[in-house]
TrEMBL record, chain A:
It comes from Amantichitinum ursilacus. Its main location: other. One of its GO terms (cellular component) is cell envelope. The gene is resA_2. Residues 1-23 form the signal peptide. It is found in: Cell envelope. Keywords: Cytochrome c-type biogenesis, Disulfide bond, Redox-active center, Signal. Residues 13-160 form the Thioredoxin domain. The lineage of its organism: Bacteria, Pseudomonadati, Pseudomonadota, Betaproteobacteria, Neisseriales. It holds the Pfam family Redoxin. This is Thiol-disulfide oxidoreductase ResA. PROSITE patterns: THIOREDOXIN_1, THIOREDOXIN_2.
From TrEMBL, chain B:
It comes from Amantichitinum ursilacus. This is Thiol:disulfide interchange protein DsbD. Residues 142-162 are annotated as: Disordered. GO terms for biological process: cell redox homeostasis. The keyword Ligase does not apply. Gene3D superfamilies: Thiol:disulfide interchange protein DsbD, N-terminal domain. Keywords: Oxidoreductase, Signal. Residues 25-138 form the Thiol:disulfide interchange protein DsbD N-terminal domain. The lineage of its organism: Bacteria, Pseudomonadati, Pseudomonadota, Betaproteobacteria, Neisseriales. InterPro entries: DsbDN, DsbDN_sf. It is an enzyme of class 1 (oxidoreductase). Its EC number is 1.8.1.8.
Length: 162, 162
């Protein structure tokens, strides 16, 4: 047994467990929907979740949205896409109509930023996408545009797992 | 058995430390380092806001707003930027380099002037930052100053807070 590796492995394990604990807490934080009603991302735990942090002023976010809209339609109830907009309600409402977004969108503001930082996006850049398994654990994450094939690849084992 | 366990742990070390970001956070500057603003006084009626933009990053012309406290009427003169063709926003003027914004007032700038500068930009890597707000006080010793008050999050979300 390599003592250095064992130490490293234990450190990584502790970090991962801590990250899971932070993720669970972050997902339990209520954010307002476009009707002003508080909603927790944790309510969708039970099926794989694609949690996308985005904004209307973010060009790469606009680029990836049509693929997410299409994928949500394709997966139906098997997967839940959720958007957290680091933005203001009027711009978001207009965007949703324009892009035909059917999955839930929550308004982030500073609370959404807190959530994003807790989930590991330390620089606060957008877009930022997390793929969560059925238990709400982070299975994959991506800073920058996440293309449809990468989302599908990350979701495949999570949909298969029961 | 111990050998097998050791091999498994070693494999876990490799797997657990593999990053899955399309844009590696380590390669990304925090927004407060990617974009900086300071102010210099040219004469009684003229100020320059000096923007520093790190290589590989850019600020949007239309998303730069400057207000003065106490309220002072002034004309802003931007230098010509570079035209960027965003797939969704169309042709946008951006500054992928340092530049000065000239502020001309018909009356002398009060010594107590504090400028609130809002700006928003992105990294060429395909990540955009939330709007930042910085407060700049006029220099008293011919040096330019940037007073970046508040926490990192406050600076980032100065424009999104209600």
């Amino acid at each position: 047994m390599r003592p250095m590796c064992l130490t490293r492995w234990i450190s990584v394990l502790v970090l991962l467990l801590t990250a899971h604990a932070f993720a669970a807490t972050a997902l339990d934080k209520p954010l307002k929907d476009l009707q002003g009603k508080p909603q927790k991302v944790s309510q969708w735990i039970g099926k794989p979740i694609v949690l996308n942090f985005w904004a209307t002023w973010c060009e790469p976010c606009r680029e990836e949205t049509p693929a997410f809209v299409k994928l949500q339609k394709q997966y139906g109830d098997a997967v839940q896409f959720v958007g957290v907009a680091i933005d203001e309600a009027p711009a978001v409402t207009q965007f949703i109509k324009q892009y035909g977004v059917t999955y839930p969108i929550l308004l982030g503001d500073a609370d959404g930023m807190d959530m994003m930082l807790a989930l590991g996006n330390v620089q606060g850049g957008l877009p930022f996408t997390l793929i969560l398994d059925r238990k709400g654990h982070i299975a994959a994450q991506q800073l920058g545009v996440m293309k449809a094939d990468a989302v599908q690849k990350a979701l495949k084992p999570l949909i298969a797992a029961r | 058995m111990q050998r097998l366990l050791s091999s498994l742990l070693f494999a876990a070390c490799g797997l657990a430390t593999t990053a899955a970001f399309a844009v590696d956070q380590k390669d990304l500057l925090p927004p407060t380092e990617a974009f900086k603003a300071s102010v210099e006084q040219v004469d009684a009626n003229h100020l320059n806001v000096i923007f520093t933009v790190a290589p590989g990053y850019y600020l949007y012309h239309d998303r730069i707003k400057v207000t003065a406290n106490p309220t002072t009427a002034f004309d802003s003169t931007f230098p010509a930027g570079k035209i960027k063709n965003d797939p969704n926003f169309g042709k946008m003027e951006v500054y992928p380099h340092p530049f000065n914004l000239s502020l001309a007032s018909k009356t002398a700038w009060p010594a107590s002037t504090a400028l609130t500068v809002k700006m928003q930009g992105c990294a060429d890597a395909g990540v955009c930052y939330p709007p930042q707000t910085v407060t700049l006080k006029l220099p008293t010793d011919n040096a330019s100053h940037a007073v970046q008050s508040g926490s990192k999050k406050d600076e980032l979300f100065g424009t999104t807070k209600k």
